[in-house]
Amino acid sequence: MEASDFLQALRTEGLSLSNPNKVILTKDNVSHKQRLYQHIQTLFQIQDLSPDALDTLRNMVLMPGKGISKVLFHTWQGKQDWNTTNDLVEYGWIQEDTIHNQISLHPFLHELLKTETVPAITSCANLLKGIFENCIVYGMDVPYYNALLNTIESIYRNIKLDDAESAAMFMDTTLAYLAKYGRIETVAIVLKLMRNMPGYGGNKRHTAICDCYMGYVEYMNGSYQKAKQHYLHGLEFLEPFHPVNADLISNLKNNLGQTYLALGERQTALSVTEEAISIRQEYGTVSSHDTLVQGLSYAQLLAANGNWQEARKRLFALIRFVKKIEGMHLFLAQLYKSLAVIEAKRLPEDSLQHYRKAKPALLDGFLPGSHPEIQKIDQRFKWKKC
After folding, report:
1. What are the pLDDT digits (tens) for 304-327?
2. Which of 20, 72, 342, 364 has CA 20 to 30 A from 112's CA?
């Protein structure tokens, strides 16, 4: 069948797998009349794809529709060479944009391969491990963060959650990465998937994780009372206290402290955040990114309660520490901006200097110049000149 004839058939019959209409394909003077879906299934048999090729196609189903970097795709899978992918490009299963070094699936093949290869938590374990390892160090900034975020979103649209425990672990880690970049809608979608998993209600930790991120969604949408309810429910659900949940309890209390601050309950907010820090110091991993986040929260609450000098002291200490770590520019920008806010009334010139330092930190964190956070800083200096 000539390419032009096949294209015409696709235009006429459509790409839907459920389309019952049949088209004629002729090969070696032998004609077959089947649905387009059946013709592609026949190609599976003709080409006798290897398990590695089928695994590659299965993983490609999870990639964003607009394509993915060839380098990232192979890095996440932990593959040493690109031979299988290059063969699939040659066969026509995978499309390659050599100018941008990206690979993708045709929409029709994506739909078909999703049905034929059934991407799942268990069958795509190697790829998910690569994504997981990227997201577990979510405090580190990477230039390909948009590609990673788009891939995570595509995974949740296309994967079968056939292992609840592994799925919950993957969700917990990727939720932190989605939250870092404010992908609130995707966070809400993942939480819905989590709540629908078998045995969800019987697992205290999974339920508390869900409450933690549901509180985040409500907080980001300005519904502080609802956020507070979720955080309190998560903490209540984890009673009696067990050290294995110390990190999660600490995070719930820290988020609850920020919510109390938003509700105007400053002293309560400070008290709850002190509890969060104390739990992490006694039971948790004190060198984690969450520890730094809690240090920032505590400084903000000290300032809100009038102890601005101690708040400045803690923020400067955090800045000195974070500067020594490669790849934490976005968090460094947060520290500078918090310091600028604290000093705005008492030390206005110092405050502006901190905003000036925040902008290059945001750019070093791979945010584009058009990003709202950078635009806000630029507007502040335009207003100052006026």
Report:
1. 999 999 999 999 999 999 999 999
2. 72
List, in sequence order, every residue forming a beta bridge with 27; answer none if it has no partner: 30
3 state DSSP class of 356 = helix
For 180, residues 6+ apart whose C-beta sits below 8 A from its C-beta are 138, 330
Q: Angle at the Cα of 186 (from 185 to 191), degrees rounded to 5?
A: 100
Domain residues of the chain, as ranges?
3-47, 307-386
What gap in Å lies between CA 38 and CA 56, rounded to an integer?
21
Q: Which two tokens stand for residue 52?
A: 């590695």
Q: Report yes or no: 186 and 178 within 8 Å, Cβ to Cβ.
A: yes
Q: φ, ψ for residue 171 (rounded to 5)?
A: -65, -45
Cβ atoms < 10 Å from Cβ of 287: 8
Residues constituting the chain: 386
Quote the DSSP letter at residue 97: E
User: In Å, what is the CA distance from 326 to each residue of 192, 322, 329?
Assistant: 35, 8, 8
What tens digit of pLDDT does each residue of 335-364 get? 999 999 999 989 999 999 999 999 999 999
DSSP 354: H
From 238, 241, 271, 269, select the one nearest 256 (Cα to Cα): 269
CB burial readout 341-355, b (16+ within 10 A) else e? ebbeeebeeebbebb
How far apart CA 177 and CA 140 sit, in angstroms, is 10
**How many Å apart are CA 133 and CA 113, to the nearest integer?**
26
Q: What are the DSSP calls for 208-250, one per residue?
A: HHHHHHHHHHHHHTT-HHHHHHHHHHHHHHTPSP-GGGHHHHH
Name the token pair of 193: 């998937």
Q: Are 73 and 145 in contact (CB under 8 A)?
A: no
